[in-house]
Amino acid sequence: MKLEGKTVFITGAAQGLGQGITEALLERGAKVCIADLNREKGEETVNQFQQRFGKENVFFIKADVTNEKEFEDAFKEAVSRLGNIDIMVNNAGIMDESKWELMIQINVTSLVRGTNLAIGHMNKVTGGKGGLIINTASVAGFAPGVSFPVYGGTKHAVIGFTTSWAANPNVESMGIRFACLCPSPADTALLDLKDHQGMMVSQFTKFINEVLGVAPVSKIVEGFITLVEKDDNNGALLLVGKNEGIQFVNRFYDPMASLPKQKQSDAAKTS
Ligand SMILES: NC(=O)c1ccc[n+]([C@@H]2O[C@H](COP(=O)([O-])OP(=O)(O)OC[C@H]3O[C@@H](n4cnc5c(N)ncnc54)[C@H](O)[C@@H]3O)[C@@H](O)[C@H]2O)c1
Ligand SMILES: CCCCC[C@H](O)/C=C/C=C\C/C=C\C/C=C\CCCC(=O)O
């Protein structure tokens, strides 16, 4: 998808990866609405971007994605100001096991809500213009991470949810594509971890700094752009990190593979 002239709604972009992604979108001629809980940082970010890219091309709406009404109102306002939303980026997320219920709400429940809002707006079957939905998962959605079991669980959920939508046979007629950005550790405030936020946090921090490696935000942004610009990206999982570089990955076990050959061919005929 070419980004020039496209309209984007992104959550959690007052700082960190979302802020970097927004900058890259604006550089390529897109118009962006940032929705974030943090009014101070959100307004500061948008003021800077408006000076560089023009007031009409980027704006901020204060919204807590766990608040159903605030999130829906923000999305409606963005549609009304931009005329349409071509790309939805559900990016807001936290990593704090001491707030595990809130973390599930932000990382999963609100991401589902954002996806549903975007589907309702974009669906060609009901008068929409189609579009692309990018959900931010993580490398933690592919592997066990002993220090942050709930965080890891939320990111597995993001991948399962997004790829299940992508596999829906109706997505072609709906004109919507679904994909996940899966960053490895990146240099943002998310990784300023306090001991109470997980288990064995100091060992974990040592592990990511010395073994996994921490990527600059710019690397993750490069991965995001690669994912968005790829035309056949429905169901894509883009892994990006310091050691991984940028790569499309496949994590699936196909339940059909364990069926006897005859049943596989019968199932293929009916699907
Ligand atoms: N930084 C990493 O190492 C890393 C790696 C993989 C995936 N991720 C994912 O990337 C996404 C962005 O993380 P980041 O590293 O930029 O973190 P960050 O903490 O720098 O930014 C997160 C943003 O989300 C916003 N936010 C938090 N709760 C919100 C809510 N309820 N409503 C609206 N906005 C809210 C914050 O205000 C902040 O602006 C998250 O989903 C995170 O899980 C991060
Ligand atoms: C206790 C110290 C050693 C922990 C090893 C850990 O369990 C292994 C992890 C292997 C892969 C990565 C899995 C999870 C990473 C989790 C978070 C990374 C930072 C944030 C993010 O990338 O989303």
Automatic annotation (TrEMBL):
It comes from the Eukaryota. Keywords: Oxidoreductase. The keyword Oxidoreductase applies. InterPro entries: NAD(P)-bd_dom_sf (IPR036291), Sc_DH/Rdtase_CS (IPR020904), SDR_fam (IPR002347). SUPFAM superfamilies: NAD(P)-binding Rossmann-fold domains (SSF51735). The keyword Oxidoreductase applies. PROSITE patterns: ADH_SHORT. Its EC number is 1.1.1.141, 1.1.1.232. It catalyses: prostaglandin A1 + NAD(+) = 15-oxo-prostaglandin A1 + NADH + H(+); (11R)-hydroxy-(5Z,8Z,12E,14Z)-eicosatetraenoate + NAD(+) = 11-oxo-(5Z,8Z,12E,14Z)-eicosatetraenoate + NADH + H(+); prostaglandin E1 + NAD(+) = 15-oxoprostaglandin E1 + NADH + H(+); resolvin D2 + NAD(+) = 16-oxoresolvin D2 + NADH + H(+). GO terms for molecular function: 15-hydroxyicosatetraenoate dehydrogenase activity; 15-hydroxyprostaglandin dehydrogenase (NAD+) activity. GO terms for cellular component: cytoplasm. Belongs to the short-chain dehydrogenases/reductases (SDR) family. PANTHER family: 15-HYDROXYPROSTAGLANDIN DEHYDROGENASE [NAD(+)]. Catalyzes the NAD-dependent dehydrogenation (oxidation) of a broad array of hydroxylated polyunsaturated fatty acids (mainly eicosanoids and docosanoids, including prostaglandins, lipoxins and resolvins), yielding their corresponding keto (oxo) metabolites. Decreases the levels of the pro-proliferative prostaglandins such as prostaglandin E2 (whose activity is increased in cancer because of an increase in the expression of cyclooxygenase 2) and generates oxo-fatty acid products that can profoundly influence cell function by abrogating pro-inflammatory cytokine expression. This is 15-hydroxyprostaglandin dehydrogenase [NAD(+)]. It comes from Patella caerulea.
